[in-house]
């Protein structure tokens, strides 16, 4: 039976590796995408979300990694994700993520008052990242 070798790489190096995955689910900018062994070659941009990796498609057991967007390439049963950051639930500092969420919400309110579109967009991305980290930490 074919497997997927999964690698998640950040500027700090290899963040996650699994040589025996049977299913990987990611969120692209166009929606959710499931990758099985022998998938056609593909390169897609990823959204801020979790990556779910299963060694057995029928099992509920899975590895979850929070990523802050990035790019995924699948070729020859090797799935590579290049992201700015990637964290497993046990690596997430929840109190830090909560503080980042609160800061982003405050900046969003201020940017709306000042009609600062650039600051608003940056704060919305920061808020998405914080919420993603908080959600993944609970899994």
Automatic annotation (TrEMBL):
GO (cellular component) term, any one: proton-transporting ATP synthase complex
One GO MF term: ATP binding
Coiled-coil ranges per UniProt: 94-121
Keywords tagged on the record: ATP synthesis, Cell membrane, CF(1), Coiled coil, Hydrogen ion transport, Ion transport, Membrane, Transport
Subcellular location: Cell membrane
Residue ranges annotated for the ATP synthase F1 complex delta/epsilon subunit N-terminal domain, each copy included: 4-86
UniProt subunit comment: F-type ATPases have 2 components, CF(1) - the catalytic core - and CF(0) - the membrane proton channel. CF(1) has five subunits: alpha(3), beta(3), gamma(1), delta(1), epsilon(1). CF(0) has three main subunits: a, b and c.
UniProt-recorded name of the protein: ATP synthase epsilon chain
Organism: Vagococcus allomyrinae
Gene behind the chain: atpC
